[in-house]
Amino acid sequence: MAFEMIVLVLSDCPPSLRGDITRWLFEISTNVFVGRVTARVRDKLWDRVVRSCKDGQATLVYSTNNEQRFDYRTHNSKREVLDLDGIKVMMMPSTKRDC
């Protein structure tokens, strides 16, 4: 059973979710959680966050065996995830309008 490091950041989520997440992860700053869990626990936690967070935002970063050595998931993020030949980057959509 392999454990991996994860970081979970929540924004505008119900306070009850914070309490629930602290059963598995340490809250090192307000709404920032870290810990070492299995991939199965990570996936179950993410499912719970998405169900409970509703209109709030969440970002999960976890270690994995790829080119960047990490991967991430987002929920209700204003940023877009782009895959550039196997390298994931975050893009903030432009607010500039073409006239």
Topology overview:
Elements: E1 3-11, H1 15-21, E2 26-29, E3 32-38, H2 39-53, E4 57-63, E5 70-75, E6 80-84, E7 87-91
Antiparallel strand pairs: 1-3, 1-4, 2-3, 4-5, 6-7
Describe the protein.
By secondary structure, this protein is an alpha+beta fold. The protein is built from two helices and seven strands; from the N terminus they run βαββαββββ. The protein has helices at residues 15-21, 39-53, and strands at 3-11, 26-29, 32-38, 57-63, 70-75, 80-84, 87-91. The model has no long low-confidence stretch (mean pLDDT 88).
Brief overview:
The chain has 99 residues and is α+β, with helices and mostly antiparallel strands. It is built from two helices and seven strands. The protein has a five-stranded antiparallel sheet with strand order 2-3-1-4-5, covered by helices on one side. It has a two-stranded antiparallel sheet with strand order 6-7.
